Structures are given as structure tokens and as C-alpha cells.
Automatic annotation (TrEMBL):
Upper lineage: Bacteria, Bacillati, Actinomycetota, Actinomycetes, Kitasatosporales
Protein name per UniProt: Carbon-nitrogen family hydrolase
Family: Belongs to the carbon-nitrogen hydrolase superfamily. NIT1/NIT2 family.
GO molecular function, one term: hydrolase activity
Family annotation (PANTHER family): DEAMINATED GLUTATHIONE AMIDASE, NITRILASE-RELATED
Organism: Streptomyces pactum
Annotated ranges, domain CN hydrolase: 1-238
Amino acid sequence: MRASLIQIGVDPGEPVEKRRTRAAALVREQAGADLVVLPELWTVGAFAYDAFASGAEPLDGPTASAMAAAARDAGVWLHAGSLVERAAEGLYNTSLVFSPAGELVRSYRKIHRFGFDRGEAVLMGAGDEIATAELPDATLGLATCYDLRFPELFRLLVDAGAQLLVIPAGWPARRREHWTLLARARAVENQAYVLACGTAGTHADVEQAGHSIVVDPWGEVLAEAGAGEQVLTVELDVAKVARTREEFPALRDRLLGLPAPRR
Ligand SMILES: O=C(O)CCC(=O)C(=O)O
């Protein structure tokens, strides 16, 4: 299975419409891949809090339409990263997965919102559903950026059958070491592929880490991008997930009924 991660640059000098067209063209260039992945909030920028409301879109808005068309034209499964979803109940950081027919097959509202008492944490609602997407050759587990810090979410995704953990992000350069460390940790502890796709550039004065990374179920880094705009293409052997789990059955040894702490 071939996967391409598009680490697109998000800079305030580029109008969103132009970036949308550019992202769609980059997706079309990946024809021949099985799965293409874009990062978190690549339209407005993950830290451009002031633009969240004005840049919010419904799930049949211009970004979703452009991504559906690009997936269809390229004939790929497309994890289109996330956008600011405008729903009746408010705003959400929502990821979208399209089939090669251009059909929206899954959406995922980010569960752990970043910012503590500001930014996304106060401007957006929290998702409350675990999301997987069934591809012909693999089950994707969906998570977004800050979710990467919460291993319990990934355990639930594994229990739901995830083999490829796909994590679009807008991770800051200042915490780049955490990004690569946590991506490898999630791969090793869940014996799954991790496909973590970040953004390049600087927006809202926050330099982005880039360094999109693909890690195999043994924790080996198959590919890692630099800081700039880049497409990372990797071959994945999905059967390696089952092989790793059989040969080193650590997941089997989980203590599901852990005793309550003694007080
Ligand atoms: O956890 C981090 O350090 C970064 C998270 C983040 O930037 C986000 O979720 O948008």
C-alpha cells in the first residue's frame, strides 16, 4: 500500500482559496498512491484563532467539494486533514476521509482541543466519537494533533480495529521533539503504523514543525520530512501489523480489568 503525506505550507500571505486550489493539485499529483493525507486546519492555520469563525465551513462547503473532486480525479483514498466545521451546535475541528469515488466516508471531530484556556479549547466544541475508516486493505484510526498526547484514545482505536493511525497536525516547531517521540511511542505501544502529517511555514507567529513522519509497527521511522513544504511517499506492508502483534504479543498482555488503586 502506497501512502503520500502532503506537508503543505500554511502562510498568511497566501489566500485560503489559493491554498485550496494548490492542495487539490497536490492531491491530483499523487495519482497511483492508495492513500493521501493532508494536515490539520491547513485552510486557516491551526493557530489562526481569529480566522476560525470566518474560515468555518459546512461539511459540503468549498474545501470538502474541492477535496472530493481531487480524490475522484486522482483515484485515491484521501484523508483531507481537518477544517473548521460550522455545525448548528458550533465549531469543530473536523477531519474528512473521501473514497476514490469522491464520497465522504468518514468524519472525525477532534476530541482533545488544544489551548488550555484559550484558542481552540474555547472556540471549538469537543468531539465525542471514536472514528475509524475502512479502506479495502486497511482500517484507519483517526486522531488529530493534540490527540497524539493521549494514549488511551489510541487504545480505543486499536480495539476498534485500527491498523494505520492517521494523525493530521499543525504542530509547533518549539515542541518538535515531542511530536516525533510521541509518534514513535504510539506506533510501538499499539503495534500499528503511524502516519503523522504536519504543516510547514509560519502562521499567527507560530513556526510549524513540519517533520511529518511515518513509523512502522516496530517503531522504525520509514520516512521523515524536513521543515519545509514536502510530499512524503512510503510503501506500507499492512500485514506487518498482524505479524508484529503475533510475534511480540504485548497487546495480548494488557490488563483490561486493572485493580482499583489502593487508598
Ligand atoms: O500538543 C502540542 O504540543 C501541540 C498541539 C497542537 O498544536 C494542536 O493540537 O493544534
